[in-house]
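Chapter summary example.
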Amino acid sequence: MSPFVTHVHPRWADIDLNRHVNHAVIVTLMEEARGHMLFTDSSPWAGFSDPARGLVVAKLTVDFRAPLDWTGKPVRVRVDVSDLRPATFVMRHTVHCGPSEEDRVAAVGEVLVAGFHVTTTRPRRLAEEEREFLAEYVVEDVHA
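The structure predicted for these 144 residues follows.
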């Protein structure tokens, strides 16, 4: 299948004392990219209208590879899906230092996401339409 690619915008306020985008903000940029993918009009999660369709982050790991300098330009984030299971899936985020695929990679993060029923606050299995949506972004090759 194919990855999801979006652009996110670090802010001037996101820089640290070394004039790099702070490492904690990198995680926020990954979260923003995930939101671009998961909460589009065509996704099963659009509109947050069904509490039975909640998702939670169960695990997060980040490999920081290069400093991300604040330039005022957006940065490219590629999101792949893997390990799609009945109740969980992994989202791999590749954050580039600029808007292009050719820009060096600043960080690669993997997030284990689990289905969650917001009202009952209990884990849940993913619905078939959720799994079908995610399957569109499953990528077998490893990038970054």
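To summarize the output: Helices lie at 23-38, 128-135.
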